[in-house]
Amino acid sequence: MQYISFNVPPYTGGEENYIKQAIQAKKISGGGEFTKKCADRLEKMTGCENVLITTSGTAALEMSAILAEIKPGDEVIMPSYTFVSTANAFALRGAKIVFVDIRPDTMNIDEKLIENAVTEKTKAIVPVHYGGVACEMDVIRDIAKRKNICVIEDAAQGVNAFYKGKALGSIGDFGCFSFHETKNYSSGEGGAVLINNEKDVERAEIIIEKGTNRSKFFRGQVDKYTWVDIGSSYLQSEINCAYLYAQIENPEIINNDRMRSWNLYNELLKPLADKGVIELPYIPEECTHNAHIYYIKTKDLAERTKLIEHMKANNILAVFHYIPLHSSPAGKKFGRFFGEDKYTTKESERLLRLPMYYGLKENEIKYIVKMIYRFFDL
Question: Does the domain made of 252-375 have the CATH classification 3.90.1150.10?
């Protein structure tokens, strides 16, 4: 079997044509036809009326932190098991990050621990939908409403995934998507911010345009534009949007392909799980996931390390995921862990992600699974 990579960036075939159209339109900076098409398509997919395409998921989080008016001295609650951008966006605003333990079944923040972590300084809760599997958003929204706290969904992995029929990213005050090359839908580098409260839309348009009222100028609402607020260069280019649009124009093409792969993994590996050799992903009944990740959990870190080496020796790149942020140097400097780290570190050391991407072949999945069985001598 030839080498099987962990990820291959999605390519559906229409990307080059749309990029060519963007070039021919002589408009390759942000704000052109494909920027609008991507925003419109995501609005239809999510039911959110206001989507802005950003340069990255990181940019979307940073914009959300500004819109939520995070200031020095504020506290922001989130899981430690997440990518650094989740915390960085708020540390940049001077906030203290309060890490809360995760659930071992979904790897999401434990919603039962959030309320006790709230203090008078708490300004926002940031649920991270790990692997496109939703956090318990009803519980989180209830806490936020009673405590007058903002909810910012890190749905970087959650495009085209749902919680009780509601699109991830559309449930909190703000939602953040990523279109990095490792995501289900990609523009290489890219993201989107979902603005779920109308009162925040005008300021979001200003922040994404480097703090100017340029959007109003192009709509003819002002005769010249100027600097009116803080902001940055968060607007995605037309070239990247053209690449992305080819994939989200019909998102089910990629989604169906990934679901087939996810389901095949799950079917073939179930006998190992039934014997207690490994654990498989858990999908709560109220969640519709998007097959972003397929992972297994080994007995412990030592076993995972050996399995990674075994897979590598057989031309398969299988990888672990996050090192918990609270144990990192910056995590200790900018944050604190609330309560007991009962599951975050332990579960992170057991989790191993298997190759998962659009176009992964059935025979490749069967070979990957065969090598896992061989490792466990079964």
Answer: yes
